Amino acid sequence: MQIAIALFERFTALDAVGPYETLSRMPGAETVFVAERPGPVRNDNGSLGLVADRAFADVPNPDILVVPGGPGQSDQMANETLLDWVRSADATSTWTTSVCTGSLLLAAAGLLKGRRATSHWLALAELERFGVESTGERVVFDGKYVTAAGVSSGLDMGLALIGRIAGDEQAQTVQLLTEYDPQPPYDAGSPQKAPAHLVEKFRAGSRFSQ
Amino acid sequence: MQIAIALFERFTALDAVGPYETLSRMPGAETVFVAERPGPVRNDNGSLGLVADRAFADVPNPDILVVPGGPGQSDQMANETLLDWVRSADATSTWTTSVCTGSLLLAAAGLLKGRRATSHWLALAELERFGVESTGERVVFDGKYVTAAGVSSGLDMGLALIGRIAGDEQAQTVQLLTEYDPQPPYDAGSPQKAPAHLVEKFRAGSRFSQ
């Protein structure tokens, strides 16, 4: 079972590593980071470089496709090399997934039209513009398309997907070994829960219209 | 404020990227991945390479030191190059932190004797062997030493530390932007919550005596 995680400049690290740390622990999984060209790809902050071991062209038929998001997503919306690979990988994938604004790339590739999906809370309205029914849910399954909300939500998506593919016990095993028993010291992880003035500040400064 | 995250072969990716994704978003933070030699460092699974941009010797005085864990920690317990750097970085750090079995490396460096600390649930007894009072808590502050439990707990540690350094609102900001509103689809993230037969299986197969 080959899992391909797409990288592009200024991706958000946890968008990619959350699904990676969960899905790569599935029995039989072979996980590969792919990008337009092999080599290190820098994240949004620039201080993290994750190595793409293969070029898109070298991984044409992954069983599971994972598309992360991040500020660099904007520059990829018209990158036909990436979008073509997403489309052709999707044509034979068992599951096509995204985290955060990665769902906008799936949408730009034409894969989510008329489907239910999610994205980072600041990108939900943008997702609607592609004819997608955007939801505020953390993980959305619609057929073989699985989309997750912002950044950290890829952990929840990874476990949910392992449950579907390999059963509850495998998912529980991964949760136990990664000690995913979250105890955030604050309760500000969604626009419904965070202080209103912070939500307003980031809506006002967002690169997406709200 | 310089944050140095140590890498070594067969580290666990999320151990490093959880604290990274939170701490690097602090205003004024300069985050750098360091290792014995600059270049890509492979994780426990081998399928992920994270670039160390600097050698230990090039980052002698970080304000915050982060030591991840993972299966590769065992090989580092007698690596004086790494342990010497941990000791000398700690001599001037404001905060010295670990995730998962990274606390065993802090202990091997002699930094945790007589202190309260935590680790991956499978490594708590091992931590006690270094004269550390190991606790089952997810994040433990003891003076400037901050240790976190297994793998995913670095997210909680990162937010807690941002709160101490930069205040509640900065921590809430990072939680909101990373949409850290965890909704794991199972409740098996600790040995108290997971099915008993899974806990027993991994205790029996652990590289640490239980």
Number of helices of chain A: 8
Oligomer: homodimer
Strand runs of chain A, count: 11
- Which regions of chain A contain 5 or more consecutive residues with pLDDT less than 50? none
The helical percent of chain A reads: 25-40%
Strand content of chain A: 15-25%
H/E element sequence of chain A:
EHEEEEEHHEHEHEEEHHH
Instruction: Please state how the strands of the largest beta sheet of chain A are arranged side by side.
Output: 5-2-1-6-7-11-10
Instruction: Report the C-alpha radius of gyration of chain A, rounded.
Output: 16 Å
Which chains have the largest interface?
A-B, 63 and 63 residues
**Overall mean pLDDT of chain A:** 98
* Gross geometry of chain A: globular
Largest β sheet strand count, sense and barrel closure of chain A: 7 strands, mixed
Can you offer a commentary on this structure?
2 copies of one chain form a homodimer. Chain A has 210 residues and is of the alpha/beta class. In chain A, 34% of the residues lie in helices and 20% in strands. Chain A contains 8 helices and 11 strands. Chain A has a 7-stranded mixed beta sheet with strand order 5-2-1-6-7-11-10, with helices on both faces. In chain A, strands 3-4 form a two-stranded antiparallel sheet. Chain A has a two-stranded parallel sheet with strand order 8-9. In chain A, helix 1 runs parallel beside helix 6 (154-166) and helix 6 (154-166) runs antiparallel to helix 7 (168-177). Chain A is globular, with a radius of gyration of 16 Å. The termini of chain A are far apart. The model of chain A has no long low-confidence stretch (mean pLDDT 98).
